[in-house]
Design goal:
- With 375 residues, this protein is of the alpha/beta class.
- It has one domain (28-365): Metal-dependent hydrolases (TIM Barrel, Alpha-Beta Barrel).
- Helices cover 42% and strands 11% of the residues.
- It contains twelve helices and eleven strands.
- It has helices at residues 3-23, 53-61, 79-92, 113-126, 137-140, 158-167, 191-199, 214-227, 245-254, 266-286, 307-324, 345-359; strands at residues 41-48, 64-69, 97-102, 131-134, 170-173, 233-235, 259-261, 291-292, 297-299, 328-329, 338-339.
- A nine-stranded parallel beta sheet has the order 8-7-6-5-4-3-2-1-9.
- Helix 2 runs parallel beside helix 11.
- The longest helix is centred in the N-terminal third of the chain and has 21 residues, at 3-23.
- The chain starts with a helix and ends in a 16-residue tail after the last helix.
Length: 375
């Protein structure tokens, strides 16, 4: 058979394969902006308080399942109120909502603290919690009687960490803050950090040089992980390494069982994309099995603000646009424009659904019981 006949036959086979794939409805390699509502998604980092029916109605319209996270945070309702709201949401929206428990450090110096909080967490896990949150107050706020800061590798945390490791319960760790927190305001990379730390000066570490450094908190976090190698760990907020995907890649390489989420740090990836778009894109593709989508949206307990859910919807769509399209975009956080990453469809599915389902295996399990999506 001649080379010409071979080449034409090969071309014919390619064409048949291509048209056959189209005929059988093969999925395209990429999503479009218009696919947003039709794709099943999970926001693996929100904070819902109160009834939150308006939020859930929007989440269902936008085809989101939700992981609501309780936090030992003074700006939020007391922990018992957070727990009651989360369990109510799980009951009222089966298959749509899961929740993460937390522990209080109010009586941390009490010798009975660990045993008391262990009993509390065991109750929450029995009531359906799919993980436990450790907040930034460990490392940035909690002190011993001598004035030294309690760090994430403190031995008094070991009973809780050991239980989570033994029972294969996910620990969601928020240690430190964006690096901007340790910089002068005029050196911060994004305006939202300037606004947050101006409103929360107690957490603005640049103004408190007596407080632990960014590196020292993360080093203590890493020692904690090294001491508990089987711990299932979700390093939320891009592991507080949001300013440099190379540093984040090194963290993931060093701790191969750790995951990270994007909550409240998408803007930092966008900022990096203004300088090296392809580097950010390569990072998300390379570590596609290790990254969860999350918004860090907080909602409630007041249902009176009808515009709050519109803001959530707008943020969700904007994140989708950045991840799935190549549109030229702008952010109110900085002046330079950037392009969307146009990630492959299989990567988007992992970020928005697959990784969360694999990490939180007991969550969102009542598929047949999901309430109908309101239209």
């Amino acid at each position: 058979m001649s080379a010409w006949r071979l080449s034409t036959r090969f071309l014919s086979l390619l064409l048949v394969s291509a048209f056959g794939s189209l005929a059988y409805g093969a999925a395209p390699a990429y999503y479009a902006l218009g696919d947003f509502e039709s794709v099943d998604k999970i926001d693996a980092h929100v904070h819902l308080h109160g009834v939150a029916d308006r939020f859930m109605a929007q989440a269902m319209r936008d085809n989101f399942r939700i992981l609501t996270i309780n936090v030992d945070y003074p700006d939020f309702p007391p922990i018992p109120e957070q727990e009651a709201a989360a369990k109510s949401l799980v009951k009222r929206y089966p298959g749509r909502v899961a929740f993460v428990a937390t522990f209080s450090v109010e009586h941390f110096r009490d010798p009975a603290w660990a045993s008391t909080e262990l009993k509390h967490l065991e109750t929450e896990l029995a009531d359906g919690a799919v993980g436990v949150k450790m907040w930034k107050n460990i490392g940035m706020d909690l002190k011993d009687a001598d004035g030294r800061y309690v760090m994430p590798d403190d031995a008094r945390l070991n009973p809780i960490l050991a239980m989570l490791e033994r029972e294969r319960v996910v620990l969601l760790g928020h240690q430190a803050e964006p690096l901007n927190c340790w910089l002068p305001e005029d050196q911060m990379t994004v305006r939202s950090d300037q606004e947050y730390f101006s409103k929360h000066p107690q957490y603005y570490m640049y103004r408190h040089p007596e407080m632990p450094s960014h590196d020292s908190i993360l080093a203590a976090r890493d020692r904690m992980l090294a001491a508990h190698p089987a711990l299932r760990f979700d390093a939320v907020h891009l592991a507080s390494l949001e300013w440099d995907v190379d540093r984040l890649a090194a963290f993931l390489d060093h701790f191969p069982t750790a995951q990270v989420d994007l909550a409240a740090r998408m803007v930092h990836l966008q900022y990096q994309a203004t300088r090296n778009h392809d580097k950010v894109r390569r990072f998300l593709i390379r570590y596609a099995d290790r990254i969860l989508y999350g918004s860090d949206d907080s909602y409630g307990p007041d249902e009176a603000n009808s515009g709050a859910v519109a803001e959530v919807h707008s943020e969700w769509r904007r994140d989708w646009q950045f991840l799935v399209t190549s549109d030229v975009m702008r952010s109110p956080d900085f002046t330079a424009s950037f392009r969307g990453l146009r990630l492959p469809r299989d990567v988007v599915d992992k970020l928005y659904r697959g990784n969360a389902e694999a990490l939180f295996t007991a969550a969102w399990s009542l598929e047949e019981a999901r309430p109908a999506v309101p239209r």
